[in-house]
What we know:
Blueprint: E1 5-7, E2 10-13, E3 18-23, H1 26-31, E4 33-39, E5 46-51, E6 57-59, E7 67-72, E8 77-82, E9 91-102, E10 105-107, E11 111-112, E12 116-121
Parallel strand pairs: 2-12
Antiparallel strand pairs: 1-3, 3-8, 4-5, 4-9, 5-6, 7-8, 9-10, 9-11, 9-12
Amino acid sequence: QVQPVESGGGLVQAGGSLRLACAASGSIFSINAMGWYRQAPGKQRELVAAISRGGNTQYVDSVKGRFTISRDNAKNTAYLQMNSLKPEDTAVYYCNSGGFFKGTYYYSGPGWGQGTQVTVSS
């Protein structure tokens, strides 16, 4: 029940948009913060965006102004709206649940999804 499930990945041309969704456990979702991570082949997994239970958000600099993280508590779902996609955004995107903020720093929780592939062509 802790493991979230991602959806919405796919193939898109540069400049296009995708919206990822993450369905998570109700209790974990409502109490804790959540984050989106991504990992490309040969690269480190990085935090892309995180959102607190109250809706406060943080983003990695490379996606600021292009990506928006949000949550719908009634649906136990978090979203990552990705606009103006670039080839360097190509990666497997993972939803993380059960995390928390200490100040503005996001600490990941135990819930990891299987990942969804996002491929951006040039």
